[in-house]
Amino acid sequence: MAGKRNALDYVPEQLTKAFRLAQSDERFQGWLKMQEASMEIEFPIYDVPQLRGQMYTPDSLAIVEAELLQLHPNHREAFTEDAVHLTMRFAYYIGETFRRAFEGTWVAIPSRVDPENGPRTAAVDFPMREAYIDPAQLVVLALNRRTGKEISRVFGYAERDYAEWIESGKPERTFLGRLRED
Fold first, then answer.
1. How far apart are CA 104 and CA 159, in angstroms?
2. Helical pair 135-145 and 150-167, crossing angle rounded to 10 deg
3. Which of 47, 98, 129, 182 matches a 20 to 30 Å C-alpha distance to 90?
């Protein structure tokens, strides 16, 4: 039965050659270093001074989301050429808060159009699940829904998944799909 696919025929992104190569991409590594540096100076001093003393805490996510809502009327405005660098500092902060809370790792997601050379998306990968957290998409979600609770709500789901993973003895993550390089 040619053409019929098994449900396990999909390839988890983390198991592809393109994913492995993307992790050493100089642009991605440079972006991470630049964001780490901005968290030391710009973000808590100039961008969101009310975070001082509570950086990377779950409660700080509500402050960050409220500030995003004050800054941008929608996600299109947040990602304009004039605003994208500030917006990506917010995205990094959100991702770093998740990363620290749940044993995550920053990863570069290869472009689906051009996995070898295309732009990378920065995301946080967790040991307890196959799915990533894409902090830029959390910014989009927050700005589109405008409830002030979207990022904290997603954090709560991750917190629940993490607690279940811890409770079950931190089993090694298994992928349902198969490793294929093509």
1. 12
2. 140
3. 129
What are the sequence ranges of the domains in the chain? 12-167
Which tokens go with 4? Answer: 């019929």
Q: Are 124 and 132 in contact (CB under 8 A)?
A: yes
Contacts of 42 (CB under 8 A, 6+ apart): 89
Q: What is the pTM of this model?
A: 0.89
> In this structure, are residues 138 and 91 in contact, taking their beta carbons and an 8 Å threshold?
yes
In the chain, the amino acid numbered 167 is: E
pLDDT digits (tens, 9 = 90+) for 2-31: 455 555 567 788 888 888 889 998 999 999
Q: What are the respective helix, strand and coil percentages of the chain, to the nearest 5?
A: 55, 5, 40
3-state SS, residue 178: coil
Residue 125 CB neighbours (<10 A): 19
Secondary structure element (H or E) that encloses residue 133, with its range: strand 132-133
Task: For residue range 47-60, list pLDDT tens digits in order.
Answer: 999 998 899 999 99
Which among 133, 144, 154 has a CA at the least distance from the CA of 68?
A: 144
Q: How far is CA 21 from CA 25, 107, 108, 109, in A?
A: 7, 11, 9, 10
Tokens 């290869």 correspond to what residue? 110
